[in-house]
Specification:
By secondary structure, the chain is mainly alpha-helical. It has two domains: about 70 residues, Multidrug-efflux Transporter Regulator, Chain: A, Domain 2; about 55 residues. It is built from six helices and two strands. It starts with 13 loop residues before the first helix and ends in a 10-residue tail after the last helix.
Length: about 140
């Protein structure tokens, strides 16, 4: 028989909440120290987490999975202003687009090696094209070498 603490509908201890997400309790304490969680306390001073905390932990995990850092997550959770949210998320989206482009290029190189019929992968036309593209001199965005 489950206690009301484990039911998911009531108040949970730090251990119960951490276990629900497969986290160590020190992770929740760290997030609290960063201002991401604000658990209530019982008469003995023990942390008590409710449904809102459960939702917040899920949001933190999803945000981290998307590549956002804890400071960015805290900034996002502290704003309800759309313009501020956009100001925070635009550079994150651009960084993610860059990482996706780099991952696609890496996958193209790897798949080229897998599909190459030559013994020496450096003889494959696709591989040579990718190498030639990489060897092109690049001018930094600010115009200086």
């Amino acid at each position: 028989m489950k206690s009301s603490e484990d039911s998911g509908a009531g108040v949970m201890s730090i251990g119960t909440l951490a276990a629900r997400f497969g986290l160590a309790t020190h992770v929740l304490r760290h997030w609290e120290s960063k201002g991401l969680l604000h658990p209530g306390r019982d008469a003995g001073g023990r942390r008590r987490y409710g449904a809102d905390d459960l939702t917040r932990v899920a949001i933190i995990l999803l945000s981290k999975e998307a590549g956002l850092g804890l400071d960015t997550i805290r900034s996002l959770s502290a704003t309800v202003d759309r313009a501020t949210r956009h100001k925070i998320l635009r550079p994150e989206a651009e960084e993610l687009r860059s990482r996706i482009a780099a991952a696609r290029a890496s996958l193209e190189l790897i798949e080229g090696g897998l599909n190459c019929e030559y013994e020496d992968v450096t003889q494959c036309p696709n591989y040579r094209r990718l190498v030639a593209e990489q060897a092109v001199p690049r001018v930094p965005a600010h115009g200086r070498a």
